[in-house]
């Protein structure tokens, strides 16, 4: 199992090699907000069994260190894009556009690497498209 933390580190490492410093910093900022969301809110979408597992470990590890990439789900992505990022992120149209650019790349990268299933990846991309359309 590849944890969410390791996958996000791998994604950023690849982007650092491909991008100039300023765009990379934007990617890093969006991924940082995504991790903040996952650590603070994604647990509410866990099953009862997974919730108990999380409760046992959450004092020692964060969500991204506990769970694998299969726990990046469309249900949580809707909240991340529709509520969290607009309330907790910098209130600028530029940042929102950056989120709309980075998140599909992240989700597609996760899918290409085999970290997310086809159906879940497709659902997440629909939410991202809706988010971008609302900008």
Please characterize this protein's 3D structure.
With 135 residues, this protein is mainly α. The protein has one domain. 75% of the residues lie in helices and 0% in strands. The chain contains seven helices and no strands. It has helices at 4-18, 21-41, 48-57, 63-66, 74-88, 93-112, 118-133. Helix 2 crosses helix 5 (74-88), helix 2 (21-41) crosses helix 6 and helix 5 (74-88) packs parallel to helix 7 (118-133). It is globular and about 40 Å long. 26% of the residues are buried. The mean pLDDT is 94.
Structure described in brief:
With 135 residues, the chain is mostly helical. The chain has one domain. It is 75% helix and 0% strand.
Number of helices: 7
Helix and strand composition category: mainly alpha
Count of domain modules: 1
| C-alpha Rg (nearest Å) | 14 Å
**Unreliable parts:** none
- What percentage of residues falls in helices of 4 or more residues? over 70%
Question: Could you give the distance between the termini?
Answer: 35 Å
Q: Report the count of strand segments.
A: 0
Tell me the major beta sheet: none
How do the SSEs run, as a string of H and E? HHHHHHH
Query: What is the molecular shape?
Result: globular
Strand content: under 5%
The whole-number mean of residue pLDDT values reads 94
């Amino acid at each position: 199992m590849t944890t969410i933390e390791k996958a996000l580190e791998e994604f950023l490492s690849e982007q650092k090699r491909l991008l100039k410093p300023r765009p990379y910093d934007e990617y890093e900022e969006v991924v940082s907000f995504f991790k903040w969301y996952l650590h603070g809110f994604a647990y509410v979408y866990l099953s009862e069994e997974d919730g108990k597992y999380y409760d046992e470990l959450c004092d020692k590890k964060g969500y991204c260190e506990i769970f694998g990439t299969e726990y990046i789900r469309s249900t949580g992505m809707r909240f991340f894009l529709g509520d969290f990022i607009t309330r907790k992120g910098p209130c600028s149209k530029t940042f929102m556009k950056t989120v709309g650019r980075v998140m599909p790349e992240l989700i597609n990268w996760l899918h290409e690497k085999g970290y997310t299933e086809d159906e879940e990846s497709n659902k997440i991309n629909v939410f991202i498209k809706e988010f971008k359309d609302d900008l």
